[in-house]
Amino acid sequence: MNPNDTGTHDHEEARPMESGTPPHEATVLARPMGERVLIWGGFPLVGAVLGWLLPIVADWAVSLPWFPFQGPLELVAGLPALVATIGGLVLGLVAGVVLALVSESEYTTVTVADDKVTLRNDAETRTVERADATAVFRDGTDLVLLGPDTGELARQGGDMPAPERLRAAFRRHGYPWRDDGDPHAEHYQRWVEDLPGLSASAHALLKARARAVERKDRSDAEQLRSELAGLGVVLRDRDGKQFWRPAPPDSR
Fold first, then answer.
1. Where is this region: Disordered (predicted)?
2. For strand 241-246 and strand 152-156, is the pairing parallel, antiparallel, or unpaired?
3. Residue 167 in contact with residue 178, Cβ under 8 Å?
4. Per-10-residue mean pLDDT for the chain, 252 residues long?
5. Model pTM score
6. Single residue among 72, 106, 140 that ends a domain in this structure
7. In what order do the strands lie in the sheet with 241-246?
8. For the chain, what is the domain count?
9. H or E element at residue 92
């Protein structure tokens, strides 16, 4: 099978805009309001309840010598009841708000327009031109866009819109969405150190990335993925293992 052949089954071909056809308004896939209400209402509420329970738990736990964190628990148990209760409530409420802020910052909003798609969260914003995208699909929990050379233009994981929302938006704007996933899936093979077919530089980067994946250093792993893409190596992770396939190296 030609690795550049994206196939035609189980997906819609791209539909270029016809001359004179008015463009669609961009589709913004942000976090649904119901989820936001749940996060901003639920996290602080749960935090406050847990904070209110903290003095009660501390009084009980200090009577158990084997229970961990005896020092901090004895400190809480020794506070006046009113101070401990109010302090626990405030601490829990603040912790809940912080968790809500983190959740909001990690959510990726996907904006799909006729001419480009934008992936935005607090850490970064990436834009892919429609003309460059030859396939769009979900790979596990990741959203992936492939380019003409079969390399990845973007791979976005983490908290993001539901698959059915992504599918509907990309199809509405004429992108080549694939329900069958990666059209080059059969070309992946598991990486093994010193496996033939890869350069010494690629092996060194894959070895470093394996260590990053093992210690759950997502930032380092993604940076190394980008460097491997420059060498013409496309990656996917499965159960902590790296699988790779070749793609023409980019010109950067």
1. 1-25
2. unpaired
3. no
4. 42 48 84 95 96 93 90 90 93 96 95 96 94 95 93 92 96 95 92 88 94 90 92 91 81 40
5. 0.77
6. 106
7. 189-190, 241-246, 233-238
8. 2
9. helix 81-106
